[in-house]
Design goal:
Elements (H helix, E strand, L loop, with lengths): L1 E4 L2 E4 H21 L6 H26 L21 H23 L5 H8 L3 H14 L14 E2 L14 E2 L2 H24 L15 H17 L16 H26 L1
Antiparallel strand pairs: 1-2, 3-4
Helix pairs in contact: 1-2, 1-5, 2-3, 4-7, 5-6, 6-7, 7-8
Length: 271
């Protein structure tokens, strides 16, 4: 969906993604101001994060849904038409931050933790995700299995998947994720606020820079996304219990996150 403003065409999907990025940036910056890290370092890192997130999100989506583009490979570049995987975005963000921090540390001969910036981003990322899911509604994508529930959404026939052309109403999968990622974001803020109020008795486990805020949210998102994907009718499946490629990835991610948190919690209790 697009609209014209002073002779310039704007895609509503792109506008929503832009708002999502702005909200995520402002929330993360609010947390950053409570630390000793420079804002300009975070701003430069934000640009790198955005670029790596978009590339990662698009590459992962095209990889898992290649059947949508094999007839016209150039359409894989049209990211404004939808098709950005949050899993790919998160992977892209981690890689982008790590490489950029390695470059900054080597150039300035200093040590800035990648985990610190991942923690800071976790205060804005969930809300950016939630807003971004509105773009799925605009593009009539990321809907689930057919349903007649009162909150079902109607999908135009031009946006229905093969085999579902006569079915009009579906689960609003994007809305489920919007709500649950917002809850996840609120939980991150609650943990941070609650830990700050303890002052001297604050838990080292929830210290900014431990990587635990980001890991906790990644574990939470992996869980909700794993179960929500059972409602997806367009996922690329595997022969492993008929799970989707994304679901297999989420299982592996959950294991890594759980082991990392267990290790940090054990070390925190010993100190």
């Amino acid at each position: 969906m697009a609209f014209n403003f002073f002779g310039i065409d704007f895609h509503l999907y792109g506008l929503i993604i832009g708002i999502a990025i702005l909200v995520a940036y402002q929330l993360s910056s609010h947390i950053l101001k409570k630390t000793n890290y420079a804002q300009n370092e975070f701003d430069s890192l934000t640009i790198v994060t955005l670029i790596s997130a978009v590339f990662g999100a698009r590459i992962w989506h095209v990889f898992t849904d290649y059947h949508l583009y094999n007839q016209n490979i150039l359409s894989a570049l049209y990211f404004w038409q939808g098709g950005l995987s949050i899993i790919g975005a998160i992977v892209g963000i981690i890689i982008g931050i790590y490489l950029w921090q390695h470059y900054i540390n080597k150039r300035n001969k200093q040590t800035i933790s990648t985990l610190f910036f991942l923690d800071v981003l976790s205060f804005g990322l969930p809300f950016g995700q939630a807003i971004g899911r509105l773009g799925n509604y605009v593009n009539q994508e990321l809907y689930g299995a057919p349903t007649n529930l009162p909150w079902a959404i109607q999908i135009d026939i031009t946006h229905r998947l093969p085999g579902y052309l006569t079915t009009a109403t579906y689960h609003p999968l994007f809305a489920y994720e919007l709500i649950l990622t917002t809850v996840g974001g609120l939980l991150v803020w609650f943990l941070y606020k609650n830990n700050q109020e303890k002052l001297q008795n604050s838990s080292k486990f929830l210290k900014l820079g431990s990587g635990n805020y980001f890991t906790l949210y990644a574990l939470y998102y992996s869980a909700i996304r794993f179960f929500l994907d059972f409602l997806r009718i367009d996922k690329a499946t595997t022969h492993f219990f008929n799970l989707g490629i994304n679901q297999i990835t989420l299982i592996l991610l959950s294991i890594v996150c759980a082991l990392y948190l267990r290790k940090n919690l054990s070390q925190s209790n010993q100190k």
